[in-house]
Amino acid sequence: MKRIVIFASGSGSNAENIISFFREKPQVEVAAVLTNKSSAKVLERCDRLGVPAFYFNKIAFKDSDTVVQFLEGIQTDLIVLAGFLWKIPSNLIQSFPDKIINIHPALLPKYGGKGMYGERVHQAVKENNETETGITIHYVNENYDEGAIIFQAKTKVIPSDDANSIAEKVHQLEYEHFPKVIEKLLS
């Protein structure tokens, strides 16, 4: 059995979608969800879904091997960043080479980097009059949004779209493709 751990910082809609997808796949288990925000809504979702979820602070994440040891202890095969906003520290990347993936709400290399997440990305797409946007699933390295691209999917942006309607189109791509790409990586 393959074991994935999801890192999330917010509401956890992508985490819930991934958990639900793999409930039907006995060869893959979402072993845990980790968050850097004690008030993150993802914790409530995990409680409702019966998935172990844990909060960690900056010291446990960046200044010690606490998180790495936890992940090794539960024999993690893949780490999935789903709306997780902190930069991944070198010790975690080195402990799980090519085993950490992220989803970004734009077609990288456009609209990536530090500070480019969520509504900021969609607003930038609108302000630059893009005719398309989408999602990028990529490996994580030491730099924000610069790891090797695994998969991209596109959607059209029309002049009447605003940041909210762009976000909705991008979320639909995330829900459709992210679990399938994870499954393919694990097979």
TrEMBL record:
Tagged with keyword Transferase: yes
Sequence ranges assigned to domain Formyl transferase N-terminal in this UniProt record: 2-182
Keyword Transmembrane (UniProt): no
Gene3D superfamilies: Formyl transferase, N-terminal domain
UniProt-listed InterPro entries: Formyl_transf_N, Formyl_transf_N_sf, GART, GART_AS
Pathway(s) it belongs to: Purine metabolism; IMP biosynthesis via de novo pathway; N(2)-formyl-N(1)-(5-phospho-D-ribosyl)glycinamide from N(1)-(5-phospho-D-ribosyl)glycinamide (10-formyl THF route): step 1/1
One Pfam short name: Formyl_trans_N
Residues in the signal sequence: none
Gene Ontology MF terms in the entry: phosphoribosylglycinamide formyltransferase activity
Its EC number(s): 2.1.2.2
Keyword line: Purine biosynthesis, Transferase
Domain of life according to the entry: Bacteria
Reactions catalysed, as given in the entry: N(1)-(5-phospho-beta-D-ribosyl)glycinamide + (6R)-10-formyltetrahydrofolate = N(2)-formyl-N(1)-(5-phospho-beta-D-ribosyl)glycinamide + (6S)-5,6,7,8-tetrahydrofolate + H(+)
Family, per entry: Belongs to the GART family.
Name of protein: Phosphoribosylglycinamide formyltransferase
Species of the source: Flagellimonas okinawensis
